[in-house]
Each structure stands twice: as C-alpha cells, then as structure tokens.
Write a structure and sequence with these properties.
Elements (H helix, E strand, L loop, with lengths): L16 H39 L6 H13 L5 H14 L1 H10 L4 H5 L3 H8 L10 H12 L1 H4 L13 H6 L9 H11 L7 H7 L9 H13 L4 H13 L2 H8 L5 H12 L14 H11 L6 H12 L1 H10 L3 H15 L8 H8 L4 H22 L3 H10 L4 E3 L4 E3 L5 E3 L4 H14 L1 H5 L12 H7 L5 E4 L6 E4 H6 L18 H15 L1
Antiparallel strand pairs: 1-4, 2-3, 4-5
Helix pairs in contact: 1-14, 1-17, 1-19, 1-20, 2-13, 3-4, 3-12, 4-11, 7-11, 16-17, 16-27, 17-21, 19-21, 21-27
C-alpha cells in the first residue's frame, strides 16, 4: 500500500541503503519516461504551466515586477514579440495612455491616412456616409469652422453646390452631405496644419484611433520604443507595468518568449526572489516553488525547470497529459515504475539515506528527486484511492486513525463546498450540463490546464463510492472525503493532505534541505 511518509525518516547509518538506491534508480527511470511524453507533444503545455506558476509568485513588489520586465524588454536581442504583446495589453486596458502619446505626434498620422480610404472612412465618416460625430469628423468640422477663411474651399460636397459657413453653422446636419473621402484627401494635400492642430490632437487622446488599425499602431509603438527610444513611451510602459497584476502580465507575455529567452528571464528573476525559509503555508505549492526557484540558480538546462514545475505545481495536469497522449507503452511503463516504487518496504528506513544524500546534492538535483517522489504519491492516490474501502485502507496502513462521518461535501459550480447528501442529484445534473456545454471544445483537443476544472467524469464515477471521515488530527476535528481529493489540485501538498503541522512531510524536508545548503554556502 502507498506510503505517505507522515513520520520522520530513520536517520541512523543502519538505514536500508539498498532500498534507497532502488528508489533513486526508479525515480530516474520515471524522469526519463516523463520526458518522452514531454518531447513528443507536451513541451508547449509544460512551458505554459511554468509561465502561469511564475505569475503566482507573490514576493515581488510592484516596483520589482516593473524593473524585472523592463530589464527583459531592454535585453539583447530585442524582444519585439514580447514588446508587441505588452503594447496590445496597454491598448486593451489603458488606451488613453497610448492615446496621449499619439496626440503629441498627431502630425505623423498624415501618412497613416494617405492613400487609405478604409482608414479615412473609419475615423472621419458616419456609417452611412457624410461627416458624423466620430472623433475625426468632429475634429474636421471644428477645424473647418475655426479656419473657414483659409480651408473652407477644400470641403467637397455631394450636391450640385457647396454650403457656406453661415448656413452650416445654423444647420450642422448639412455636414452629412459632405464628401468625406474627397475632403480628407484635399486636407492631406493642401491643409497640412490640420494634422498638427489642437482639434485633431484632442480627438486622439482617448485612444480610440488605435482600433482603426491595431496592427499598425502596435508596430508604431514598438518602433517608438526601440528605434526612437522615446522617453514618454518608456514612461507609459513603466506606469502600466506597475499598475497591472503580475499574474496577468506573465500569462500574456511570457508565452511569447522562446525557451532561451524564458531561461534568461528566470535568471533575471532569481535576484528578486528571497522568500523567507519557513513553513509559511505548505499547502501553497506556488510558495514552495518560489522557494525552490530562488535556490536553483544552478539548473543546467531549461528542461530541469520545466520538470520541477510540472511535478511540484501541476501534478494533475501532468497526469492528464500522460493519459491523453497516444503512447500506451510509455503509460504502461510509468504505471509499472510507480508500482515498483510503492512496493519498496513500507517503512521510513529507505527515505533517510535519500534525504541525507540530498543534503550533498546540488539544489536542483535534490528538489527534482523529492519532486518526482511527490508526484509518485499523487499518481498512486489518483489510481488507487477511488473508493471508501481504498481510502480507509490507506489510512490504516499509514497509522492514521479515523471516524466515519455521514456528512458529504460536493462542489458547486463556483467551486465552493456544500455539506449534505441531499444535493447529490442537483449537483450531478449541473455537472452533466456543464459537461455538454464544453464538449465541443474537448473535441477540438484544446486543453486549458490553468483553470481549476472539475474533471466531471471522475466526479460522476465517484458519487456512488462517496466516503467521509474525521481524521485523528486535532482531536478528530479535521474532515476528509473522496470528493475533496477529486476536486482539489495537489502537488507537494500530497504529503500534507491531512494538514497536520506536527508530522514530517517531504515539502518541509525540501525546505530544510535548501535551508541547510544555504547555511553551508
């Protein structure tokens, strides 16, 4: 039966060295087999997991996140794809910031409209033709009235004769008879002062002009950033990077980097990470990964970081990836390796020598070993513990006392727990509807591993085998049930699933190893 390592390992020299060597050898084989899957199709998803994990780092201040991303923007070679995505975010979330920059350079938009009827129509014309209330149209009409002595003759009318300023002033709807296309072309050729006028500049400030041709303005801003090194563009960029949520920035921007650039970004990130080495919240796997990442500057390849993140932070997604791929032979091999690891004698004498060796290893090697062992536990729990009897057997084999409970918890659609078995049919019905709603997306093989999806099939399968218990933690006040395991993602928290602050678990062992190595260095 699966060993959870809930007690302190045996540290004396009489530990089972042979079992320890077998465990390490099997974990190395597991690593190699997992990488076969990664190489065959899961690598891009593993990169996405890493970007999302980085986004959950909580120790960075707003100033630090701005400084870090600006360093990346300015690094060589230039990250134009990264910069383009950042500019897109500024356009979407703070268009007025970009609009204020364009309004100061309104004269440059003369080239933007030259020879482009589509852009002229979108900015100056009413949908049905004529000069309407669009920002460009208002600017053109206001400028024409103010400067009527010099530019009124440039207005082109659709009727047989033109309109005088006095008539249009009393009947502004006459502007609907203006031939906007011909008029703007006249202004492009004969009225250069319009393009630098206050009227035209003011029409640009809210940033609505950006959406006339988004691609053009993204390239325009990237050029201002890199070719002209424009101070106001860098200022707006800095302000935005300080205001925006770090998680949103990472999810949107980091995925644009190739692996070498992402690797460079991680090395830049190291100098900003200095989380306190303590058991802050061992159920928070992102905090644990932050600690690990801050101490693993010795990683030899990007692959090591991808694997570490997968086993520590994305155990469920990794398991799903392995199940979804076509490599049945590799799947069988992983199952066999995990089975062999779980059949190593069920005492702690084989873990002690491994942990002792970890104190001598490089940080990343020690973390990788413990991370793989954590995923073995997750895999085994997912495979073996699917019924009331299997959970109770797990408790007994790991010396966990328990009392059965007649209360059950189910997830509602928002992910909140509700007590009581009377909601079973209603929850099942909602689950089926939710499943149908998203079936088309599943058929397209479009996976979104970032959301806390409910894995409906597993929930439906388990509803007939629901078990709920009070565990021997804090005088049987801690409750546990099968549905909680199905619905809550675990990684290194697998060793801490019973939330006992007094037991030794591999997550705290990992912290101890990193802390000891830091002191030794």
């Amino acid at each position: 039966m699966l060993q959870l390592f809930l007690s302190e390992p045996i540290w004396n020299d009489n530990g089972d060295e042979n079992s320890a060597k077998i465990r390490v050898s099997l974990l190395s084989q597991l690593e190699s087999t997992i990488w076969l899957f990664m190489a065959s199709g899961g690598r891009s998803e593993a990169r996405l997991w890493l970007c999302n994990t980085i986004g959950r780092i909580s120790s960075l201040t707003r100033h630090n996140q701005c400084e870090l991303l600006l360093d990346l923007l300015r690094s060589k070679p230039l990250k134009k794809g990264f910069a383009s995505q950042l500019v897109e975010m500024i356009f979407e979330n703070s268009p007025h910031k970009a609009g204020s920059i364009i309004s100061k350079r309104s004269y440059t938009l003369k080239k933007f409209f030259e020879g482009n009827p589509t852009r002229i129509s979108k900015w100056f014309s009413k949908a049905g033709g004529g000069l309407g209330h669009e920002p460009g149209g208002k600017a053109l009409s206001q400028f024409s009235f103010v400067n009527r002595d010099t530019c009124w003759e440039e207005l082109e009318w659709k009727g047989k004769h033109g309109q005088s300023p006095a008539v249009v002033a009393t009947k502004p709807h006459y502007f609907l008879d203006l031939d906007v296309q011909a008029t703007v072309e006249n202004f492009l050729e004969n009225v250069p002062e319009f393009w630098s006028s206050n009227e035209f500049s003011e029409s640009l400030k809210d940033g609505e002009i950006l959406f006339v041709d988004r691609k053009y303005f993204v390239e325009y801003f990237v050029d201002l950033m890199y070719k002209e090194d424009s101070k106001d563009v860098w200022k707006v960029t800095s302000e935005f990077l300080k205001e925006e949520c770090f998680s949103s920035l990472c999810k949107r921007l980091l995925i644009t980097l190739d692996e070498s650039d992402l690797c460079d970004f991680l090395k830049m990130l190291f100098k900003y990470l200095n989380p306190r080495m303590e058991q802050k919240d061992l159920m928070d796997s992102s905090y644990l990964f932050e600690v690990i990442l801050s101490k693993c500057a010795d990683f030899r390849s990007f692959d090591e970081i991808l694997l570490l993140n997968a086993v520590f932070n994305h155990g469920r997604q990794l398991l799903r990836l392995l199940r979804d791929e076509e490599g049945h032979e590799e799947q069988a091999r992983i199952k066999d390796i995990v089975s062999k690891i779980c059949t190593i004698p069920s005492d702690d004498s084989s873990l002690g020598p491994i942990i002792k060796d970890c104190f001598k290893m490089k940080n990343i090697q020690a973390c990788k070993l413990l991370g793989l062992q954590s995923w073995v536990i997750y895999y085994s729990l997912s495979e073996q513990c699917r019924t009331r009897d299997s959970w109770e057997s797990l408790f007994l084999c790991n010396a966990i006392s328990f009392r059965t409970s007649d209360r059950y918890s189910f997830l509602d659609n928002q992910g909140a727990y509700e007590e009581g078995g009377s909601d079973l049919d209603r929850k099942a019905s909602k689950t089926v509807k939710h499943k149908k709603k998203h079936s088309s997306r599943r058929k397209r093989k479009k996976r979104d591993f970032d959301h806390n999806d409910s894995y409906d099939n597993e929930v439906l399968d388990l509803q007939s085998n629901v078990g709920s218990w009070f565990l021997s933690i804090d005088e049987y006040s801690a409750s546990w049930n099968i549905m909680m395991w199905t619905s809550v993602e675990r990684s290194l928290g697998n060793f801490h699933i019973f939330n006992n602050p007094n037991i030794a678990c591999l997550s705290s062992v990992t912290l101890a190893i990193l802390d000891a190595q830091r002191e030794n260095n």
